[in-house]
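Lab manual, section 2.4: Encoding a predicted structure.

Procedure: take the sequence of the chain (177 residues), apply the prediction step described in section 2.3, and record the output as structure tokens. A sample record is shown.
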Amino acid sequence: MNQPVQKNTLYDGGLAEEVNESILHSAFIPFGDIKDVKTPLDQATQKHRSFGFVTFLEKEDAAAAMDNMDGAELYGRVLTVNYALPERIKGGEQGWAAQPIWADADTWFERQQQEEEMQRIQAENRAAMQAAEELHRKKMTQEREGEKDEEVEGKDDPMARVEAYKRKMNNGEILRE
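Recorded output:
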């Protein structure tokens, strides 16, 4: 999985124990204005973990510092300087995330509610379509039965035939001449 690099933050590995944030700042300030310097501490020993991060204001300054300081010596140790990757926190959908697992809880609940609402609407639409189809079938059946009744009535009664003819004219089923 490729993670995007932070072009203005540098990872500085291989730091000697004597190096602190002030010394790291002094070593990198010749390359440009520095926004932040961090040396994460080991919780057990309260000493830095042999690496740190230097964040420059400008990407170009970070690039110059990386080009010049990677492989350089500081307090007798050779530095490894690269662009820093974003901090990873365990959790999220891929196992690691840039946010804690609970950060997307609200959006997850919103997505769940939207999905449930969509399913409810789809079920209502299906029920309405089935009801409309059933109503249409009944209407068509009634019309067919009505036509049969008219045919039967029309054969025997000339007045019924005239009334059926007028009804069809009024409904637009027969064009006037």
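Check your result against the sample. The chain has a mean pLDDT of 82.
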